[in-house]
């Protein structure tokens, strides 16, 4: 009878350990999910900032190209006179 009681106690301890591991894993999964969502949000913000910067660089490049084109045409017009 003591062996049976000891077996039940051992099974109860194992169940407690399994429940503890399950709760730990659930909290890890929850934390990982939050971190993943946070990471995705940061990536979206970085992508938006990158697109804004690229747009501004393209606009400045276009203005510089127009200025260089204008100056080139003006110099060639001046030198051909």
User: How much helix, percentage-wise, in residues?
Assistant: over 70%
Query: Can you tell me the residue ranges where pLDDT is under 50 for at least 5 consecutive residues?
Result: none
Largest sheet: none
Rg over alpha carbons: 35 Å
Give the distance, in angstroms, between the N- and C-terminal Cα atoms.
Answer: 118 Å
Tally the helices: what do you get?
Answer: 1
Q: Count the strands?
A: 0
Which percent range describes the beta-strand content?
under 5%
Helix and strand run: H
Structural class: mainly alpha
Shape: rod-shaped
Mean pLDDT: 93
Task: Name a few traits of the molecule.
about 80 residues; 1 helix; rod-shaped
Task: Provide a brief overview of the structure.
The chain is mainly alpha-helical and 81 residues long.
Describe the structure.
- By secondary structure, this protein is mainly α.
- It is 98% helix and 0% strand.
- It has one helix and no strands.
- It has one helix spanning 2-80.
- The longest helix is centred in the middle third of the chain and has 79 residues, at 2-80.
- The mean pLDDT is 93.
Write the layout of secondary structure elements.
Layout: H1 2-80
């Amino acid at each position: 009878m003591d062996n049976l009681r000891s077996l039940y106690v051992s099974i109860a301890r194992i169940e407690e350990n399994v429940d503890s591991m399950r709760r730990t894993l659930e909290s890890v999964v929850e934390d990982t999910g939050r971190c993943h969502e946070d990471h995705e949000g940061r990536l979206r913000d970085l992508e938006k900032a990158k697109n804004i910067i690229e747009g501004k660089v393209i606009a400045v490049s276009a203005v510089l190209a127009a200025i260089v084109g204008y100056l080139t045409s003006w110099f060639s017009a001046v030198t051909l006179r």
